[in-house]
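The aim of this short unit is practical: by the end, you should be able to scan a pair of folded records and say something sensible about each. We start with the first protein, listed as its amino acid sequence and then its structure tokens.
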Amino acid sequence: MKIVIQGMHCDACVRRVRNALEKVPEAQVQKVEVGSAVVGVDPSRETAVLEAVRKAGYEPRKAE
């Protein structure tokens, strides 16, 4: 799952998002960089992944 994330500006943002994603059960964080993330996750857990990013203070959306 590729996620576009608005509101990320620096390495601290990357760490915050990575930490939030690593707490989602069964999510495998593959890559996090300013503005996006790639997570291996079952489709049934996609909502939980997006919500974790929201709770970290950013605005995520699934990339098409």
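Turning to the second protein, read its sequence before its tokens, just as you did above.
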Amino acid sequence: MTDPLPSNDATWRNRFIALNLTRIGGTALTIFGIVVWQGNVLRQGGWTEVGFPLALIGLAISFLAPRWLARRWRER
């Protein structure tokens, strides 16, 4: 029976990079959403209708996407 986990170092490195880029991207989206929500970036006084959903989506990406990727890689 073959081992389902890849033993190639490049594969592990690429997966590590993908997980961290996912976390960083989610965090950046969260920060951008908060700035739009509370700051004067797009509209004077903030833009709740756009910023708050962006912040929530960024949080979901930051916390849930790495788990989803790890589970997907484990199933292969």
